[in-house]
Amino acid sequence: MLTIARISLFTAPAFALLLTGCSSPSSDSSSPTQISAEQLAAYYWVVQGATDRNGNPVEAFEGDFERPLQLTLNNNQLGIAGSCNLIGGDYRLEGPTLTPGQLVQTMMYCDPEAVMLREAAIKQQLETAQEVQLSSTIPPRLTLTNTHGQRLNLQGEATPETLYGSSGEIMFMEVQAQRVECPHPLMPNHQCLHVREVVYDETGIKQSTGEWQNLYQEIQGYEHRPGIRNVLRLKRFDVANPPADSSSVAYVLDLVVESEVVER
Description:
By secondary structure, the protein is mainly beta. It has helices spanning 14-19, 37-41, 113-125, 160-164; strands at residues 7-8, 43-51, 70-74, 77-81, 87-94, 97-100, 104-105, 130-134, 141-146, 151-158, 169-175, 180-181, 191-200, 206-209, 213-215, 228-238, 249-261. 23% of the residues are buried. Residues 174-258 form the DUF4377 domain.
């Protein structure tokens, strides 16, 4: 079992810093609910599509994209992930009106062009005040209508904090470049991430490293690429009443701190 040192979680979503779960059955109820900043912060809001003032689909949001656009609204900070660039800024919520501040972004170009067009479209959508409608469905649905009558439709995906019922704890983990064989009675031919804990002081200076160990579970949000060694900042959550063959903790990627190509 991996032993870790823990630091109380204090960070906002990683992309916001750079710029300044158990599923439930669907419900047919779509009645609106009162809107609060806490409700908006409890979910990642995944873009399902958009319509113009006449109700016609906005073409830039149509098509088959590798990653969906995802909106976060937390601590008066707005962030957009899933596109070529990271986009973020502040916002103000007053009753049913959400007013974004000036949005800033990283400046990269990506192929295909459709990705860039979608990115431009969501920035344009969020340039003005938004009328907010939040459904009481499970999962919840969020509708943002700007002053031009353009409507953005989103579906909520519970954040780890919502899913596991706590704010989580920060830890750092180094992941070796290659997976290793780790036979398991329930998982024949299984290959594990080979990991060790890394401890930093308050100034970011490395203090110590733990022993290399096999990690039988996956790290949520992390996609391992063979040949790449990474140091990850993770959020660690206790899992209440896990199944007999599952871990009592969950690891969620917060930020990739360091990456290195390692040749065999």
